[in-house]
Design goal:
By secondary structure, the protein is an alpha+beta fold. The chain has 3 helices and 2 strands. The N and C termini lie far apart (91 Å).
């Protein structure tokens, strides 16, 4: 009998590692003003409260496990309104 190839053994190890790691949870908070996003980066403000409330809600619902699980928070910046370059006549 031939010995198992190292490629096949490595593939099994890789597949077992990916299946045992928890999958990330993605939360989209939508579009917000630039100032609110800056405050969120500093760990302050209304958006930070929203993130904490969302995480607590997910823990109580059982979506987030007690073990560490990656959570990705997505917040997009609202586009600025363009000011008219021509004065109104």
């Amino acid at each position: 009998m031939a010995a198992p190839s190292t490629e096949n053994t490595e593939a099994k190890k890789a597949s077992s590692n990916t299946s045992s790691s928890p999958s990330p949870v993605i939360v989209d908070l939508g579009k917000h003003r630039r100032k609110q996003i800056k405050r969120l980066r500093r760990g302050e403000g209304k958006l930070m409260d929203d993130v904490n409330d969302t995480l607590e809600e997910m823990r109580t619902a059982g979506t987030l496990s007690a073990a560490s699980q990656p959570v990705v928070i997505i917040v997009r910046q609202r586009r600025r309104k363009l000011k008219s370059l021509l004065p109104l006549l």
